[in-house]
Amino acid sequence: MSQFYSTKTTYNRLFYNLLIFMVVTPFLQYFDRFNIWFPIIFFSTIILAINTLGFSKKFIYIFRGIAIFAYLSSIISHLQMLNHIDTIEIFSDVLSALFMILSIVAIALRILSETEINGDVIKGAICIYLMIGILWGIFYKILVNINANSFELSIFIDASPQYQLFYFSFTTLTTLGYGDISPLNSVGMMLSNIEALLGQLFPAIFISKLVSLSLNK
């Protein structure tokens, strides 16, 4: 394993898949098959993200296999096909979070190693920012599955609890802070604070990287 990130992968497919995930997901909840389509779009994003890792094909295939297993676990959980649904869902979410973390780190390391500005660098940075929002949405979802009273979700918002948590994640990441959803315990508050800090620090670090590359040119 010479390096953790792939130098050959471009981020076009991942970038557009993330945009589709952001735009299409709100509308899927109004369809009967939301519990099936949401995991399909989400885990296709996960599998595309795995491609950014610089591991051997053997490891990549193993990661994809685990991702598919996590997808099936998610489907089973959503359709309530077995007992211990919460445990299965938490397990699936933990695997999803792990893949997101690996992919974010891989893309970040590749961007930091770049010596010139190009479209791939910019798309990669946008992918990281969007994936941080999704990752924290998963963290909040895990927390709610462990303790249902971790967040005060709004009964007046026409959106599923799962989507409300992703919405809260991105409003926290961008530090908009509308106040319609709030963490109710110390773990939720801690996660929210860390996400808000990342939302401020990441753009600043990325812009400084671009300026540095531009000056070196």
From TrEMBL:
Signal peptide: none annotated. Residues 164-212 form the Potassium channel domain. The chain crosses the membrane at residues 12-30, 36-54, 61-82, 94-112, 124-143, 196-215. It comes from the Bacteria. It holds the Pfam family Ion_trans_2. GO terms for biological process: monoatomic ion transmembrane transport. Keywords: Ion channel, Ion transport, Membrane, Transmembrane, Transmembrane helix, Transport. This is Two pore domain potassium channel family protein. It comes from Cyanobacterium aponinum 0216.
